[in-house]
Design goal:
CATH architecture: 3-Layer(aba) Sandwich
CATH topology: Rossmann fold
Helix content: 40-55%
CATH class: Alpha Beta
Distance between the termini: 40 Å
Number of helices: 9
Strand order of the largest sheet: 3-2-1-4-5-7-6
Length: 270
């Protein structure tokens, strides 16, 4: 299944009806468990960095969901947000400018070819690395872009059921993925030779989180891939399923998962 056609539909809606964008962001924050974990981690890292003004790199910002959150919750800060999709970047730039959010700039970039040096206190990379074949090259670029002592936050599917792959003969549920996911050891072994030491790591989407993802995200996406008419049915679907989905997400969020289909990995530049 391919996410991009569905994501482009949502992008078109929030472009056509700008006042829905923040509601859309809040819906993503509510419905995607990864956002719960990412927001918790970056708020904790903001405390670690002290009260000074910090420079943040939102690497692969997509709709601008985390850019918006950080601009509001991690101040004082400046945010350099980039993505490879020019139309999404233009839409974000137009909206943020209209809202006079002045601590953010948007740029079209290929993360394989960036040349930032000692510039950022925090790099946030959410569900991006699994799309890139040249991951070690990109991790090296991140290391170069960080200031000494700066943090890199990576959220990505794991090898333990990420992309809904549970066996060698299965294929990724997400057609755009370059790999099914990472293990802690894989990320550690790729980061440490570059000078990025492990700061903290946590598996996400354990038993309950995986069930919540299927009920709240996978099944609706499968329906939308069949026909866009299911957009009309979604409100009724979520009316029935959302309470159960949120309960399972909260159970996962409060757990220490030994493994999970997602991983939240934080490294620090030596």
């Amino acid at each position: 299944m391919h996410y991009d056609p569905i994501k482009n539909v949502f992008a078109a809606v929030i472009k056509a009806v700008p006042f829905t964008r923040v509601l859309f962001y809040k819906t993503l924050d509510l419905m995607f468990l990864r956002s719960w974990y990412v927001r918790r981690e970056i708020k904790n890292l903001r405390k670690e960095l002290g009260s000074k003004k910090i420079d943040i790199y939102d690497a692969g910002c997509g709709y601008g969901q985390y850019t918006y959150f950080m601009s509001q919750k991690l101040a004082p800060c400046t945010i350099y947000a980039s993505d490879i999709k020019e139309d999404w970047i233009n839409d974000c730039r137009e909206y943020f400018t209209s809202q006079k959010i002045n601590n953010v700039s948007f740029h079209v970039e290929d993360l394989r070819n960036i040349s930032h040096e000692n510039r950022f206190d925090l790099i946030v990379c959410v569900d991006v690395m699994e799309h890139i074949h040249e991951d070690v090259e990109v991790l090296g670029n991140y290391h170069r872009a960080l200031k000494p002592g700066g943090f890199l936050v990576i959220n990505t599917p794991s090898i333990y059921g990420g992309s809904d792959v549970h066996d060698d003969h299965e294929e990724s549920f997400i057609g755009e993925h370059a790999r099914d996911g990472y293990s802690f050891e894989d990320l550690r072994d790729k980061c440490e030779p570059l000078g990025l030491k492990v700061y903290r790591s946590r598996y996400t989407y354990g038993f309950w989180g995986d069930k919540a993802w299927r009920l709240g995200i996978k099944y609706p996406m499968m329906m939308l891939n069949l026909s866009k008419i299911f957009f009309l049915i979604l409100p009724f679907y979520y009316l029935l399923t959302l309470p159960f989905t949120l309960i399972m997400m909260q159970m996962d969020f409060g757990s220490e998962n030994s493994v999970g289909s997602g991983i939240n990995f934080i490294a620090q530049k030596k």
